[in-house]
Amino acid sequence: MHAETGQPPIARFTSQGPLQAVEPSLLRAAFRWSVVRRVTSTASVSLAGNRYAVDPSLIGRRVELRFDPEDLTRMDVFWEGRPVGQAIPFIVGRHVHRQVPQAQPAAPPQSTGIDYLGLVMAEHDDQLLGQIAYRDLPRTADEPRS
Q1: For residue 37, which of 46, 29, 28, 25 has the smallest C-alpha distance?
Q2: What are 7-57's pLDDT values in tens digits?
Q3: Contact 12, 3 (CB under 8 A)
Q4: Rounded distance, CA 46 to CA 76, Å?
């Protein structure tokens, strides 16, 4: 029970009726980022190191760019709150906005401190050491003495 409302939180949450699924396109639009850019004399705007072509009628105007920060290849252009088309990427060098957290590369496995190869070689040497002593073998007549 919630101390202030006197209801369990789930009961209060569902008190307005059954929950309704949100339209996926509306949900995507709600989490888009927005920036304002001035359109250059070449009818282009820049964002995160990428350049985009926009409608030439927007030259010199301040436009709003709405985009998914995880996909900089698609960008909608708005002027005075109205959609005026899409920004067409020239060359996209950066596909994700730099403020979006990136997955870190997997950490290399930690060293155990055990030299397995050294242990195998030591065991091999222990097994062979003392079995054959070449210096104790009898010499043949044609071998030079040192």
Answers
A1: 46
A2: 898 888 888 888 788 888 888 888 889 999 999 999 999 988 889 999 999
A3: no
A4: 13
> Around Cβ 45, how many Cβ atoms within 10 Å?
23
41: its two tokens: 């004399």
* CA distance from start to end of the chain: 98
Instruction: Kindly state the tokens that stand for 48.
Output: 């995160």
Angle CA(89)–CA(92)–CA(93) in degrees, nearest 5?
A: 160
Q: How far is CA 10 from the centre of its chain?
A: 35
Separation CA 144–CA 146 (nearest Å): 6
| H helices present in the chain, as ranges | 9-13, 24-30, 116-128
Closest alpha carbon to 87 in 47, 60, 48: 47
